[in-house]
Structures are given as structure tokens and as C-alpha cells.
Design goal:
The structure holds two protein chains of two kinds. By secondary structure, chain A is an alpha+beta fold. Chain A has helices spanning 2-38, 63-72, 128-136, 154-161, 192-196, 265-273, 286-296, 323-332, 335-343, 372-382, 397-412, 424-431, 454-460, 480-490, 496-511; strands spanning 45-49, 77-79, 91-93, 101-102, 108-112, 172-175, 180-184, 224-230, 234-239, 256-261, 279-280, 300-303, 307-313, 347-349, 388-394, 416-422, 441-447, 515-521, 523-527, 538-539, 543-544. Among the domains of chain A are: 56-213, D-Maltodextrin-Binding Protein, domain 2 (3-Layer(aba) Sandwich); 307-521, Dipeptide-binding Protein, Domain 3 (Dipeptide-binding Protein, domain 3, Roll), CATH 3.10.105.10. The longest helix of chain B is centred in the middle third of the chain and has 37 residues, at 139-175. Classes of the chains: A alpha+beta, B mainly alpha.
């Protein structure tokens, strides 16, 4: 009897506890569901982009395609989709279990793959797919091959591929049984991990043809699978049912993302206004930005993808080989006014190479201005007053306008100018060709490949990398001290100390006045009425993060 | 030389009516040029529009003086950060725009966008009379300098085109045979292309690298490029009618008589044939200036003509088109200039045609050709 009573008592307490737990759970669910009511998943996020170069990760090399591929694919290491602490620019494990083990000499990187990873076609991901992916870049004549030339055997493989790709790159060791991928480098590279986060290393199944697979519904290992790409029209991202979310790459929000390609910025903007699209990153025409900011200001955000727009001054040209002539240009430029005229004020004036969202950025203001009097004085001191110079520009609206303003500035400090505008397609190859005459000063811009100072200084300002053709160092800056610092820092992993030294390189370049940087642009992102703006994440590298957005 | 007007019928055409009023007695002993002048000077509408054209030319020629003494700036000088006193109040040439940091730290564009200083009329001491452009340049100054460029290209290309066409027509018409065949096929070849498309193709090709062949070096941004391109594409519009006229003239008795007196080909061509087609060529020349100004504007608008920062009316319209809603003066002002110039040349050209030959019905119509009609 007593036993029965005790049992009943215990059951009573238990039932009370279960009841309380149920009430608590229902309150929790209620809270969750009310939050979910304000933030719903998009069943179909409608996106308008102006153009896409490729969707095959071996070929894609524009910001537009990188943004899409960041949402769809995954790499060994990647950038977190939501990372408030670092603003999304810190490298985190992607397909790897954790960050790699790096040997003490900085030449060996060992990755362990996450278990159970499958492509969107159900086939398992093998460690050897990573080796194949990088090897595929060579016969595909991908623009990404340059990023991996530090891997042991990569150069020899590239040479073999001139005839017929055979064998493997010796420095990529894949162990399918242990699910490890090892990279061996010829020399330490502080930016090697950053290059492994580039879309060029998005794994594809071994045997994928080298030819462009943009329209072939390439199997995906990331959150989405890209299908139905019709060039110049559009494509769709659908969920990859085999995708395994992680802390850094969560399950994506929209069930489907439909991308329409519309080249006319006016039409793209109108699609969002009409409710036919939920997002566009089209450059809103200057005639409409005023009205749109007034009426739809809350639906506009600005992305600050790392970029620097600058004028290179050829350190070997008769005029700009003189430091004072270069410094005169720095003093003469009215950067704020130029930004207002060319970009409607949507940009930050700058006087340095690195953009402000870099940890190595230390604000420089070496040339207080605009100071036309000082600039004229420097021109006279350099003995180039009245000299004739050619200002080069690219046949795109912003470049042409900036070049016009620069020519006017140069005229005002004593130069005589001729403007030369070249077609979009041939501009960079022409100014990067040593035999092109009259390369005095010209417009250029740099949008990072990956967030690392090497991607700026080593590519654009290392005198040891000047080439006769396809040269990226348009200013032909070749200062021994700068070159040595770049070469040394290239080998070191980033740290607070190394960051300071990169900042010092930035200062040295600007003391040499190799460039006249003028703006870090901000890019308008225009959202439709259905978008819950509080869910919008503007990623520092890939602009709008499609995978995290929610609807109202 | 002058045949009787057997097919004359009364019309409302002013010049025809004037011609009809003339008595044979008055015509006797007068040169055709004098008669044409007499007819023209009684056509007040044509003269008024000639006056308008001269006024435009004079205004444009005064561009450097206006720039220096009234606007105090050059055609390519920018004044982005300047403030202008308009009716006693300071106004920025370019204002507004920019961005601010939102509540949650995000960057948000400022409402309203960039505002460009509009026409000040005479309230800023002559500065920015017709407003500023997106680069802070004085539109009035650029309009005048642009006019100089457009007129130079228009008149220059008309001159080259007429001279080429006249030379080809004289050679083809006088000699006939294979020379005529080559000239006729050349006209056919050029005529086979739509004028603007051919001009765009040539203009685009030449504006990139210039012309550096046969010992001729023309730089990429040179005004010679649009001038040359326009002259080439319009040659058949003058050459074909002139050739036809010369083919008919060479069979006339006065040409035979001249030959019979021992005149050589050059003498016949320049002293017998040329004076008889000079009036037609003059009319064509006048009318084609207007066509050329329009073609230059079209080419420059499309980026295949005059290259920025050089101003031309087409360039001004092209530069202003992005801001047609917020800064309409950037397109309206050069647009009106083109309309007035072309209108004045067309009305005067019509008057001149009527005065030189009241029975002739020559017209230069590019559009007519493109729609399959003959001229």
C-alpha cells in the first residue's frame, strides 16, 4: 500500500514536472514561432545581376560570380557567412574539419576533410578531388593558376600541360582512406590559405572535363546547386540536399535563388522598384539615385568590398620619373570633390593602397590638400612645367569622367594633357605593355582577389614582378627597399607584428607617390519590399550574402 | 545654255513665283548668278535664317572671348568644389550626395543624390550662364566651343565631300567608260551601307588607334577623323546626281563646240562643265552642312565621333543623357543649338536652291535613301 502511495506520489511529481516542461516548451515554441513569423525563408529569392562571366569555378573571376559561388559552393577554408566579430573576413574551416596543421617552416599544410561529404549528385567527396581540381586549372587555362605556383611541382606540371597534362602535381598529396589533403610549397607563402579560399579550389569530381562547365549543372559540394544557366539570361540555385551545414557555413535561407541577367542598370533597378525582383547590385543611374534614396532609402545598403581606385604614375616616364612631379599630383587632387562628381559621393577618399577594411590599414594622410599652389611649386621645382603628358582611361563611364577631371587638375598645375581612352577589353593589356608609348599617368582600380596585403603589394607594386607584357605594376614602381619588404613579408603568416610591417610598406609606397589613390568605393545594394532588411548581411568580401537573407 | 521652261506650272513655291514674275526683258543681259541673287534677296525667310546661321557662327567664334572675359573659365576647366554667388547667395557647383552611418553601423546613402548647379542666367556675373555639368564645367562655354567643333566638322566635311564628289563626277561624266564604271560602283558600294552604321564602324575603328597608313598620320582624338568619316559616307549623295548631270551636259552642243575648237579635257571640264554644275554643287554643299552637323552629333553621341573632353554638341548631349531628369539643361541646350543650326541651314539651302534654279528639285535626304527612295 505504502509502496503504491509512494509510486503514485513519484508519478504525480513526474507528471507535474513533465507538465511544466511542456508549458515551458510551448512558451519557447511560441516565442520561436512569433520570431519566425517576422522572418520567413524566401521560397524564391529573385535576383537581378548585370552579367556573369562563368559559373564554372575554374573560370569565374568577377565579383558577381564570386558572390554567387560563395553562396553556392564551399572550399577547404572559407569565410564565415555570419561573423560579427571579424566582419566575415577571417578564414575558417569549410570542408576541412579544422584549420590545417602547418609545419614550422611554413611549407607544408595538412587538411583533414569533414566526414560524410557528398556532392549534389550523391557521389562522395574524395580527398583526391582537391588535387584534380587544382590540376584541372591548367588545361582549362584558368586565370587562377598563378595563385598556386608555389606548390611543389606546379611549375613543372604547367610546363607539361603546354603539350599534354600528364602525371600529378607532386606537392598535392591526397589520401582518400585517411581523408587528408597535404600541400607542400617550394617557399613559405603567408597568403597560401587565402588562395585556398578562392573559388578556383571549389572541388569538382575527378574526371570533370577541363572545358567550361558553366552550363552543365556542375555537381556542388556547398549549400546550393547551380542549374539551368543560359548565358546572358539567367540561372537558378537550388538547395543541395546532401549539404551538411557547419557553424561557419549554415543551412541557407532561401529555398531557391533565381538569377536574371539584365545588363541595363536602369531596367535592373526598375525590376526591384516594380516588385519583380528582390535584389540587384546594379549601379543605380545617377539620374535616379536621388529619387531612389528619397523613396526607398531604407532598402538601400552600401557594400564596402575591398577596392582602391587610383591613378598610376609611370615612374619611368620622362615627367613622372621625378618624385616632385608625382607628389604634385597628390597635392593637386581634390579627392572628395571627385568622388562626389563621379560616384555621387558614395566612396571614401583615400591616399593609400590598402582599403580601410584591412587589419593592416593605418590611415595615411601624407599630402594635405587639395593644395594647388604647392602642387604648382613642385611642378616648377621638378622642371616639368608645361610638359606634355598623356592621361589614359578605360571606355567606361566612371573611368572617362575621372580621367577628364584628372586632366583638368593636371592642366591647372602646369601640364599640357592629352586624354587617351581605350576600349574596356584592351585597356589593361595596353597599359601593361612596355612598348606602348606615352604611358605617363592613367586610371586603374583594384578589387581584391583575397583579403591579404600580398594581393595588393606583390601583384601591383613589386618591382621584381615587372614584365614586358601583361604587367600589373602599371606605375613601374621599382624601389629596392619596397621590393625587399614585400618579398620578405610574403613568406610570413599574418600577425599583429607582420600587419604593422605591411602598413609600413603602404607608407613607403605613398612616400614614393607611385600611385595617386583617390577612392575606396561603396557599392549600392538595392533590395525589394519583401526583404527583411534586418536579415541582410553585407559580406566584406562577397557583398550581399544571398544565403542568409530572410523575407518579411 | 538655259532651256525654255516648257513644263512650268504655277505653284505656291515663293522662289518659283518670283521667277515666274520676271520678264524676259529683265533677264536679258544678266548673269545667272545675278538673277539668283535677285531672287534670293527677295526671299526674306531664307535670308532671315541665313542671318540666324551667321549669328550662330559669330557667337561660336567668340567662344574664347566669352570664356575669358565673361565666364572666366575654359571649356575643360572643372570647378567641382567651387561656390558661386548667385543673386547674392552662395551656391555650390556640385552639392549633396554622400552617405552616412546608420543606426546599426551600416552605411546608407544620403537622400537626394548629387545636385548640379543649374542655369544662373545673368545672376552670377556671367558665370555658369547655362548651368554646370557633372564635372563642374561651364555649359555655356562648352556650348560655344562645342559649336566651333561641330561647325568645323560640319563645314569641313561638307567641303571635302563636295570636292571629292565633284571631282569624281567630272571625271566619270566626262570620260565615261571604265572611269565612269569605277566611280559609279564606288558610289554604289558606299550607298549599299546604311549611312550611320558605316560611319559608326569607320569612326569606332579610327578613334581607337587613329589612322597611320600611306604616310598619313592622324592621331586617335583628332577632329580629322569624324570630318573624314562623314565626308566619305556622304559622297554618293552629291556624287551621283552631279555625275548624272554631267553625263547629260557632255552631250550638249556647247561642249562639242568647245572640243571642236581644240579644248582639252581639263579645259572642257573646268571651263564648260563645272560652271554648269556649280549651282547644284553649291546647293548640295549648303544642305549637306546641316546633314553633316547632325551626323557628327549622332556619331559623337555614340562615342564614334569627337572624343571627350573636346566639346561638340553631340558630345554634350551624350555627356548629359545620364542626367536628363535631374539636370535637363545638359541635353536641352546643345539640342536646341543643333536644331537652330540645322533649321537655319536647311531653310537657307532651300531658298538658295530655288534662287539658283527655280525648276530644280534637288534634295539631300539621307533618310529617304535609307527607306529606299531615290533623291
Amino acid at each position: 500500500m505504502r509502496r503504491r502511495q509512494r509510486t503514485e506520489r513519484i508519478l504525480g511529481v513526474l507528471s507535474l514536472a513533465v507538465g511544466l516542461a511542456l508549458i515551458a516548451a510551448s512558451v519557447g515554441v511560441g516565442a520561436k514561432s512569433s520570431s519566425a513569423a517576422s522572418q520567413k525563408n524566401f521560397t524564391n529569392l529573385r535576383v537581378v545581376l548585370d552579367t556573369i562571366d562563368y559559373l564554372d569555378p575554374a573560370q569565374a573571376y568577377t565579383a558577381q560570380s564570386a558572390g554567387i559561388e560563395f553562396a553556392a559552393f564551399d572550399t577547404l577554408v572559407t569565410y564565415a557567412h555570419k561573423d560579427k566579430a571579424h566582419g566575415g573576413s577571417k578564414l575558417v574551416p569549410g570542408l576541412a574539419v579544422s584549420m590545417p596543421r602547418i609545419s614550422s617552416n611554413g611549407k607544408t599544410y595538412i587538411f583533414k576533410l569533414r566526414p560524410g561529404l557528398r556532392y549534389s549528385n550523391g557521389k562522395p567527396l574524395k580527398a583526391s578531388d582537391f588535387r584534380y581540381t587544382i590540376e584541372r586549372l591548367y588545361p582549362a587555362t584558368s586565370q587562377g593558376v598563378g595563385f598556386y605556383k608555389a606548390i611543389v611541382g606546379a611549375s613543372a606540371y604547367a610546363d607539361r600541360c603546354l603539350h599534354s597534362c600528364s602525371g600529378h602535381i607532386g606537392g598535392i598529396i591526397a589520401n582518400n582512406a585517411k581523408r587528408t589533403v597535404t600541400f607542400k610549397l617550394t617557399t613559405p607563402r603567408g597568403d597560401f590559405l587565402s588562395t585556398l579560399a578562392l573559388q578556383f579550389t571549389v572541388p569538382v569530381p575527378a574526371g570533370t572535363p577541363a572545358a567550361d562547365q558553366s552550363t552543365k549543372n556542375l555537381p556542388s559540394i556547398g549549400p546550393y546547386h547551380i542549374i539551368n544557366y543560359t548565358p546572358n539570361q539567367g540561372f537558378t540555385l537550388v538547395r543541395n540536399k546532401y549539404f551538411k551545414p557547419t557553424r561557419f557555413v549554415p543551412r541557407p535561407g532561401p529555398d531557391k535563388i533565381t538569377v536574371k541577367l539584365i545588363g541595363d542598370a536602369n531596367a535592373a533597378t526598375q525590376q526591384v522598384i516594380n516588385g519583380q525582383a528582390d535584389y540587384t547590385n546594379a549601379a543605380i543611374p545617377p539620374d535616379r539615385i536621388g529619387a531612389i534614396t528619397r523613396r526607398y532609402g531604407k532598402r538601400l545598403k552600401l557594400a564596402q568590398q575591398a577596392n582602391t581606385y587610383y591613378f598610376w604614375m609611370n615612374n619611368r616616364s620622362p615627367v613622372f620619373k621625378k618624385l616632385k612631379a608625382r607628389q604634385a599630383v597628390e597635392y593637386a587632387m581634390n579627392r572628395t570633390a571627385m568622388i562626389r562628381a563621379v560616384y555621387g559621393g558614395l566612396g571614401r577618399p583615400t591616399q593609400q593602397v590598402l582599403p580601410p577594411n584591412y587589419p593592416q590599414y593605418k590611415k595615411l594622410s601624407l599630402y594635405k590638400g587639395p593644395n594647388l599652389a604647392k602642387a604648382r611649386q613642385l611642378v616648377r621645382q621638378a622642371g616639368v612645367n608645361g610638359a606634355h603628358i598623356t592621361v589614359w582611361g578605360r571606355a567606361v563611364t566612371d573611368s572617362q569622367q575621372a580621367v577628364t577631371l584628372m586632366a583638368s587638375t593636371l592642366e591647372s598645375i602646369g601640364f599640357k594633357t592629352t586624354i587617351k581612352i581605350l576600349p574596356r577589353a584592351t585597356y589593361y593589356t595596353t597599359i601593361g605593355n612596355a612598348s606602348t608609348p606615352d604611358r605617363d599617368i592613367g586610371w586603374a582600380r583594384w578589387l581584391e582577389d583575397y583579403p591579404h596585403p600580398s594581393d595588393w603589394f606583390d601583384v601591383l607594386l613589386n618591382g621584381n614582378r615587372i614584365t614586358a607584357q601583361n604587367n600589373n605594376n602599371y606605375s613601374e614602381t621599382n624601389v629596392g627597399k619596397i621590393n625587399r619588404m614585400i618579398e620578405r613579408l610574403n613568406k610570413l603568416p599574418l600577425s599583429a607584428k607582420v600587419n604593422k610591417q605591411w602598413a609600413q610598406v603602404d607608407k613607403l609606397v605613398m612616400q614614393n607617390a607611385s600611385w595617386a589613390p583617390w577612392v575606396n568605393r561603396l557599392f549600392p545594394q538595392f533590395f525589394g519590399a519583401k526583404v527583411n532588411m534586418s536579415s541582410v548581411v553585407i559580406h566584406p568580401i562577397y557583398e550581399f550574402d544571398y544565403s542568409t537573407v530572410r523575407s518579411k | 545654255m538655259t532651256e525654255p521652261a516648257t513644263d512650268y506650272s504655277p505653284s505656291l513655291d515663293t522662289a518659283s513665283a518670283l521667277a515666274a514674275e520676271e520678264h524676259e526683258a529683265a533677264i536679258e543681259g544678266r548673269s545667272p548668278w545675278y538673277l539668283a541673287w535677285r531672287r534670293l534677296r527677295r526671299n526674306y525667310v531664307a535670308l532671315a535664317f541665313l542671318g540666324l546661321f551667321f549669328l550662330i557662327v559669330i557667337c561660336c567664334s567668340l567662344a574664347p572671348l566669352y570664356a575669358r572675359y565673361v565666364a572666366h573659365t575654359g571649356p575643360n576647366a572643372t570647378h567641382l568644389a567651387e561656390t558661386v554667388i548667385v543673386s547674392g547667395k552662395p551656391r555650390q557647383v556640385l552639392s549633396g550626395g554622400g552617405f552616412h552611418v546608420g543606426k546599426s553601423g551600416e552605411l546608407v546613402p544620403n537622400a537626394g543624390g548629387v545636385k548640379i548647379l543649374g542655369p544662373t542666367w545673368w545672376h552670377a556675373g556671367g558665370r555658369f550662364l547655362l548651368g554646370a555639368d557633372q564635372n563642374g564645367r561651364d555649359v555655356a562655354v562648352r556650348l560655344l566651343y562645342g559649336g566651333v567643333t561641330s561647325l568645323k566638322v560640319g563645314i569641313g566635311s561638307a567641303l571635302i565631300c563636295t570636292l571629292f564628289a565633284l571631282t569624281l563626277a567630272l571625271l566619270a561624266g566626262y570620260y565615261g567608260g571604265w572611269i565612269d564604271w569605277i566611280a559609279a560602283r564606288l558610289f554604289d558600294l558606299i550607298w549599299a551601307f546604311p549611312v550611320l552604321l558605316l560611319a559608326i564602324a569607320l569612326g569606332s575603328a579610327l578613334t581607337i588607334n587613329g589612322f597611320h597608313h600611306f604616310g598619313i598620320n592622324v592621331a586617335a582624338g583628332s577632329l580629322w577623323i569624324p570630318t573624314f568619316v562623314i565626308s566619305v559616307v556622304l559622297i554618293p549623295y552629291i556624287g551621283r546626281p552631279l555625275r548624272g548631270q554631267i553625263l547629260s551636259l557632255r552631250e550638249k552642243e556647247f561642249v562639242e563646240a568647245s572640243r571642236g575648237l581644240g579644248a582639252g579635257p581639263l579645259r572642257v571640264m573646268f571651263l564648260e562643265l563645272l560652271p554648269n554644275v556649280a549651282s547644284t554643287a553649291l546647293v548640295f554643299f549648303t544642305l549637306i552642312i546641316a546633314t553633316n552637323i547632325l551626323t557628327e552629333a549622332g556619331l559623337s553621341f555614340l562615342g564614334a565621333g569627337v572624343q571627350p573632353p573636346n566639346a561638340s554638341w553631340g558630345v554634350l548631349i551624350s555627356e548629359g543623357q545620364d542626367r536628363i531628369v535631374t539636370a535637363p539643361w545638359l541635353t536641352i541646350v546643345p539640342g536646341v543649338a543643333i536644331v537652330l543650326t540645322v533649321l537655319s541651314l536647311n531653310v537657307f539651302g532651300d531658298g538658295l536652291r530655288d534662287a539658283l534654279d527655280p525648276r530644280a528639285k534637288v534634295k539631300v535626304s539621307v533618310a529617304a535613301h535609307e527607306h529606299g527612295a531615290d533623291t
